[in-house]
Amino acid sequence: MASNPTKPSGLPGKMKKDESLLGKLGGTLVRKKKLKEGNCIKTFLLSSLIFAEENAERTILDPTSREDLNFKDLQKVLIDWINSELEEDRIIVKDLEEDLYDGQVLQKLFEKLSGHKLNVAEVTQSEIGQKQKLQTVLEAVNVVLRPLDWNTEWSVDSIHSKNLVSIVCLLLALAIYYAAPIRLPEHVSIKVIVVKKKEGILQTAHVTKQLTKRDAFDTLLDHAPDKLNVVKTSLITFVNKHLNKLNLEVTELESQFADGVYLVLLMGLLENYFVPLYHFYLTPESFEQKVHNVTFAFELMQDGGLQKPKARPEDVVNLNLKSTLRVLYNLFTNYKNSE
């Protein structure tokens, strides 16, 4: 008697069905996301048409730039910087648009950077109160930046409406003016949609906006190695002029300052004091000990009236030449006439 044929397993068919369903869902989600972004732009354009005065101009981030890795990296650097500055206030920023629009964080950040207290209410829940706070904060910021003819690309309305372009431009201006100890990603550009109302007609244009430029030391390293050698020679002469007093000598800038020991000793010599040995590791072995030394040297620089170095301690320890040059050149410009 012939046996019944084996019934094929239903699993492959089920998998194909599930895969097909997931594919459809995925496609639907992507289409919905694009539709949502498109609607956001349409809403922005419509509001611009209704409320904008003649020749008024507004800018919005092109949705394609939201996923740009360099732009995301820039946002992360700015968020980490804010959180570092406001650590004592126990303020933690996770999203620039959602956490800065009401003026609370911007107020605290500006007060910390400038050292001046602003006359504003500490907590404001209403839209009117938030905009009043933003007005006070931005007026104070603009007063600081005005002598530098800074192009203010932000306003109360743009910040409060969570315009990411305006928020990032404002933070970049503050970071640069106050010499924030951060390493900004270079060559970051975004695509923006610029809307202008002219003779009652809404005109739009897609423009590429440059946010950060190439670093000066990068240019020096890439295009003028002869000048780089001149700078290094000047810095070596400068540091040896002081370190020779302790019978120490430097021949390689990036490697001999990497553990922070020479930086600490150099600061003591420049400021004419002895640094107690228990404050730093004289013979550091681990990465953490070296970072501790460089960080301590940076603190001594600030105690001496210098601004906090732009370089990160970790970069100096990792033998990053540009970071080491930045730190030493800052010392050179401030102490070149010291004996």
TrEMBL record:
Residues annotated as domain Calponin-homology (CH): 72-179, 229-336
Domain of life: Eukaryota
Keyword set includes Repeat: yes
Any Gene Ontology CC annotation: actin cytoskeleton
Pfam families: CH (PF00307)
Keyword terms, alphabetized: Actin-binding, Cell adhesion, Cytoplasm, Cytoskeleton, Repeat
Protein name per its UniProtKB record: Parvin, beta
